[in-house]
Fold this sequence. Notes:
The protein is mostly helical. The protein has one domain (6-139). Helices cover 88% and strands 3% of the residues. It contains 1 helix and 2 strands; from the N terminus they run ββα. It has one helix spanning 13-139; strands at residues 6-7, 10-11. A two-stranded antiparallel sheet has the order 1-2. The longest helix is centred in the middle third of the chain and has 127 residues, at 13-139. The relative contact order is 0.03.
Amino acid sequence: MEKFGYETNGYNKEQVNQFVNDVITQTENIVKKCKDQQKQIEKLKNQLSHYQTVETELKKTVIQAEKASEKMKEMAKEEAIMIINDAKNNASRIVNEALLKADKIETKRDVLEKNLQIFKRKLKLVVEQQMAVVEEIDTLEIIE
């Protein structure tokens, strides 16, 4: 606390007036500083509110992205299962067609084999008949 000098009617007026002016200036500076700080506080509150809103929206977006990702995974799994089932069905069909074709070929082969045996027998008979003719020619007497 400041001490004032004495005069005839009390404290020194100039010292008291200077002190009061200093107190007023300091008080005005404190009030101005408080107002500036209050403005700063209000600005920071607005920023905080904005960032909280952005954070909430980002959380919602992340949740939606996760849901979309899960849905895409499920769809991909279902599509993979469908592709595998189609491949299995096609493979079964191809195998069945190949078996039928092989069966037809085997049947044709059997028929050809039987026909070949018949042809051989007939050819053998023809050859035997021709041999008989040739032997008969040897035994024939030629008449002149």
